[in-house]
Amino acid sequence: MSFADEYLAQLEAFAAQGPLPRVRALHLPPVYDRQGNRGEFCALELEDGSIGLSYVLLDDTFERLIAGADSFGLPGADTLALARRYVSDSGIWKTLGFAAANALTRCLYDRAGFRPVDSSDSIGHLNPQPGEHIGMIGKFTPLLRRIIASGARLTIVELKPQLVGQHDGYRVTLDAEELSGCSKVVSTSTLLLNDTLDRMIACCRNARWFAMVGPSAGCLPDALFARGVTLVGGSWIHDGQGYLAALTSGESLSDFASKFALTADSYPGFDLLLARAV
């Protein structure tokens, strides 16, 4: 069973407990020169204030979202029905389905009274050491300096041929098999949207630490931990209206959300969360 199938099955179980909030609105970033993570994610807002994020820069997803934002019929939509499209669809509907699933995860966390611990470590607690071989799935430009400064060797797996080659302190390749030589790996949560999760984890078979980080890593992590992911790091939105205003205007999001980190030891598990949800 795929990660998406397992994730949806958990949300179906959550829905069986009682009514879930419907969709209030979709919020998109502006079209502009992006800085950091700004402009890379959409936010789906539910009627109870829960917000789910999803990456929008795969293929032509963002352009299609911008062009059709008023025609998706999302306000008032059944959130679980939309989340099912994360499993059954592709492109924009898979993206929106993932955002819906993540919004329902936040709804479950709030109902269960669960708050992941904050984390100030943007590289997923990798703690790179001199001589270690670190893998990175997707180029996280803001994270490069810290890993390179540690004296670790860094290999980045990318999908963009124009990035391939030896750079100052790191190397970029298209060959994911090169991750087999890495002892620690940090990955973008985009793997959850482009259907490469299981293949990439298999390539990291010798890694003792696999961190998945990014604003859209706000999913239920049970199926990730079961696959060998050791840390999931996402964004915890503590001021929803402030966050949405900043996202749609292209301003900094840092005043309205904080980074969180979840490990198998710090996460109570879906069954306990479901039992606590009211």
Q: Helix and strand succession?
A: HEEEHHHEEHEEEEHEHEHEH
Query: DSSP strand (E) fraction?
Result: 15-25%
Count, helices: 9
The unreliable regions are: 33-37
> Class by helix and strand content?
alpha/beta
Q: How are strands sequenced across the largest beta sheet?
A: 4-12-11-10-9-5-6-8-7
Q: What is the name of the CATH class of the domain at 3-117 and 239-250 and 269-276? A: Alpha Beta
The radius of gyration is: 18 Å
- CATH third-level topology of the domain at 3-117 and 239-250 and 269-276: Enolase-like, domain 1
| Architecture (CATH level 2) name of the domain at 3-117 and 239-250 and 269-276 | 2-Layer Sandwich
Whole-number mean pLDDT: 93
Kindly report how far apart the N and C termini lie: 29 Å
Give the assembly state of these chains: single chain
Number of strands: 12
Determine the fraction of residues in helical runs and give it as a percent range. Answer: 25-40%
Question: Major β-sheet, in short?
Answer: 9 strands, mixed
Shape: globular
Any overview of this molecule?
This protein is of the alpha/beta class and 278 residues long. The chain has a domain of 135 residues: Enolase-like, domain 1 (2-Layer Sandwich). It has nine helices and twelve strands. Strands 4-12-11-10-9-5-6-8-7 form a nine-stranded mixed sheet, covered by helices on one side. Strands 1-2-3 form a three-stranded antiparallel sheet. Strand 5, helix 5 and strand 6 form a beta-alpha-beta unit. The radius of gyration is 18 Å and the shape is globular. About 2% of the residues have low confidence.
